[in-house]
Amino acid sequence: MLSASVRRLGPAAYAARRHAHSAALSKLLEKNPDDVVFTFSKRSAIGRVKKGQLANTSVDELLNAMFKATLEQTRLDPSKIDDICVGTCHPPSPLYVSRAAALAAGIPASVPISTVNRLCSSGLMAIRSIVNDIRAGEATLGFAVGVESMSLHPRPTPQVSATVAQDALADDCIQPMGWTSEMVAQHYNISREKQDEYALRSHQRAERAAAAGIFRDEILPLRIGEAIVDTDDTIRPGTTAEGLAKLKPVFADWGEGSTTAGNASGIGDGVALHVITTRANAEKEGLQIVAKWGGCAVAGVEPRYMGIGPVVAIPKLLQQTGLTKEDVNVWEINEAFASQFAYCMETLDLPIENVNPQGGSIALSHPLGMTGARLPVTGLAELRRRGEPVLCTSMCIGSGMGAAAIFVNEM
């Protein structure tokens, strides 16, 4: 299915417009010593919630395994790490367990660590935190991590005081995410059929990618106990339109009940990690540069329509950077629910062949803290296969926000 942009302009004109280097794009592609760059970007395989390969693996075990595997593969001297930031949402005492996992992996006690929670964007916020440390001259090299065990730490029910809950927006802010999916579907007239259509595409793309071994490019095998975890167990082969249509609504009491287990993101467990430094330091240390940081934007929306966050975050980011949609080669936009994903796709008018080309969270699942760090891993791997430069990642965020970021492939 061609996007409205392609239909309006014609394929040849759209392609010419898309590949025309704007001044902003030319500047983005420049290489300067003070650029913030990525020298390592990998993720774990994802485990299915409660029943999958990581269901009994705690957050500290996930982090510890990822730290160990990263140090082993990169041969980095851990004493040269200036800071670590971990994005995660629901484990109790996240700073304590993150710090303990780092120390147990052989990272020296001299290396500090912090945690950040901006729900679905937490992994991206960890990246942004380390990037900004480096830009401020407060660090030279850091680790940014996104991690979640939704098997062991499911979303707690938010609680606010009666005084705060009297405000309508505040009350909307703490409602279940499934409710926001139904509100988006109802308010923006996103039919069940359309949601299933977008979901089917995600399932089929991920199934094909897994069968072709494409995800091996981005997965760092982890030793968990005696097992090596290196393959996603969340993908559901054989998903069909007929099968999706038969599924009953999960939230039938809200809205029109169009959200199902087949057209919403799965719940899962996993971890992703990025090594971030300056170009000058990477060249000095002989580190291979895989990507360059291009910028980030965060924006707010009404909590009731939480899922539309990318519709405001992406234009804000493009305005900040001076880029256009046509400057972006690959988009990784989180599929929290097919209702919100469909609305974002059609409102932003993006070419579907360049968005989540190997499937998204509806197929792979959405470990909350991991996702913001996984999307650039997946998107950069796709850019390397295509030989193209620019990635935009984006996601909606619980309580009513959206975030987006630009990355430049250098491999």
Describe this structure in words.
Pathway: Lipid metabolism; fatty acid metabolism. InterPro entries: Thiolase (IPR002155), Thiolase-like (IPR016039), Thiolase-like_sf_Thiolase (IPR050215), Thiolase_acyl_enz_int_AS (IPR020615), Thiolase_C (IPR020617), Thiolase_N (IPR020616). By secondary structure, the chain is α+β, with helices and mostly antiparallel strands. The protein has a domain at 26-151 and 265-409: Peroxisomal Thiolase, Chain A, domain 1. Helices cover 40% and strands 18% of the residues. The strands form two sheets. Strands 1, 2, 3, 4, 5, 8, 9, 10, 11 and 12 form a ten-stranded mixed sheet that branches. A two-stranded antiparallel ribbon has the order 6-7. The two termini are 30 Å apart. Residues 1-18 have low confidence and may be disordered.
